[in-house]
Specification:
The chain is about 70% helix and about 0% strand. It is mainly α. The protein binds heme C.
């Protein structure tokens, strides 16, 4: 019986995509790759905005930022700071204020969703506002939680 419960819990953990038994190194590699990807996606959006191009062509890039933003809380498990011995710029302040950190990611998701809607509507004014709000959130989180290079 105990084993069945354990198995069920294990399967539930895997099925819900949680960071079950995920090593610190895995989490660090995944989040660093993800942040690089959203920085590239943000740059792609900016280029089309600056060129007054068809905004609908980059709506999926904003959705990429939103999707990664939802994964941020789970990609910072306890023990994945510098104490892991891995190369990471994640500051200890993250785990001292994890709910604030996670809330920052949530705001970025909300703004990325707004941006995706504005891009899909090819609405330049709404895009400019949402893009500004979304990218401001990068800095809001980096200042307290990311070590300088
Ligand atoms: C919730 C907090 C948070 C938000 C929001 C956030 N970042 Fe970060 N970012 C971090 C942390 C913490 C690191 C350091 C991760 C590490 O080294 O383990 C990081 C690292 C990075 C890196 C370096 C990745 C590498 O190692 O090569 C880039 C680039 C980056 N972020 C871009 C962005 C951009 C662009 C946005 C907004 C669209 C953004 N971030 C939003 C917290 C955040």
């Amino acid at each position: 019986m105990k084993r069945m419960i354990l198995t069920a819990a294990l399967l539930a953990g895997v099925a819900s995509g949680t960071a079950w038994a995920q090593s610190a190194a895995d989490a660090i590699n995944q989040r660093q790759a993800g942040f690089k990807a959203i920085a590239a996606a943000t740059g792609d959006i900016k280029r089309v905005m600056d060129a007054s191009g068809d905004l609908t062509t980059v709506a999926a890039k904003a959705e990429e930022v939103s999707a990664f933003g939802k994964r941020i809380p789970a990609l910072f498990p306890t023990g994945s700071g510098t104490e892991s011995g891995q190369r990471t710029r994640a500051l200890a302040a993250i785990w001292q204020n994890k709910s604030d950190f996670d809330a920052n990611a949530g705001i970025m998701v909300r703004e990325a969703d707004r941006l995706a809607a504005a891009l899909k509507a090819n609405d330049r004014t709404a895009t400019a506002a949402a893009f500004g709000a979304m990218t401001a959130q990068c800095g809001v989180c980096h200042r307290p939680y990311r070590a300088p290079q």
